[in-house]
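Final report, closing paragraph on structural work. Over the funding period we assembled a curated collection of sequence-structure pairs, and we close with a single example.
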Amino acid sequence: MLWMLAHGERFRRLFFLACVGLLAPTAYAASCTTQSQMTPSQREILTGTARTVLSYVQRGAAQDIRAVTLPAAAADFSGISASVARLQPLLQSAAITVEEIYILEADSNSQGAQRTDFYCGSPVVVLSLSGLPPGTYALAIVHASGVPNPQQLALILSQTADQRWMLAGMINKPMTAAGHDGLWYWTSARKYAQTKWDWDSWFYYRIAADLLDPLESISSPNLEKLHREADQVRPGDLPGAAPMSFYAQGMLFTVSSIDTSTALGGLDLDVHYKADPAQSAQLQNPLLSRQQVTALMTRLLEMHPELRAAFHGIWVHADQGTNSLFALELPMEQITAENSPQRIGTGAGPR
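Its predicted structure, as stored:
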């Protein structure tokens, strides 16, 4: 059955078709009709439905959205209503463009399938939806632009027995990060790869992939090429299954994760480390806590000075279990490190 949940902060989701895009071992193929293969009437109805839903979001008209939502999802509407209220200010004055539409036919063979793959057009775009009952669906990819925080939205529509299209799910993600779109990050990632600055290149490829896949379950020749390029530059010393450990000012730092963040507007590196008992004790002192975290930042830049060329600054979070003991963000110019390279030809970089 189709159902929805409230958005997660990481991808700023409005609401979501359950389990979309999870790669499961059992999959069934089904038929897909691209917008170029549709009749004018089909295109007009689907485009109009998508625009209607977005107009309700722009007005914050949650109850109007509820009226065009599948009953199973509309039955518990509090999460969706809260998400509409959060998203409405972002889209209120946006220009709405329906970029792509697809009709997806899931036949009886997909009953109980963990994943249904739809092969669309040529070159082939593969859309993977999980937990999908037999039926007729549509996907509309919409851009809301011309606002400070442009968004891309993927609407899943379901056709009812009386031929109406009703909303089954929606994902919204930003179209830009720190003022740049996915193609800018892809181009910049390639330039960093050419200079062998693999850390910069890897993180920029990840941002590009996130921005260029509105549904997080789309496979296309371009996206596959992007992922292949990213795999070629993935640094071997990043924390993953095992943490990254190094000494700084006599302290052993155990870094559990490194990601990116635009929480303060610019593009920052986002670092989490596990504080040991001695470090945890220091973190109770404001002066010593700042010195400890700055020591980690400085050592990281000594090991990878190229990070100054790609990031506004560094966020560091000292963690103990699931709790954050201390967090600090500093711009690169406030972090002491030697042999820092200048920015390469990708513009001024995300600030």
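Residues 1-25, 337-348 have pLDDT under 50 and may be disordered. Residues 119 and 126 are 5 Å apart (CA to CA). We thank the funder for supporting this effort.
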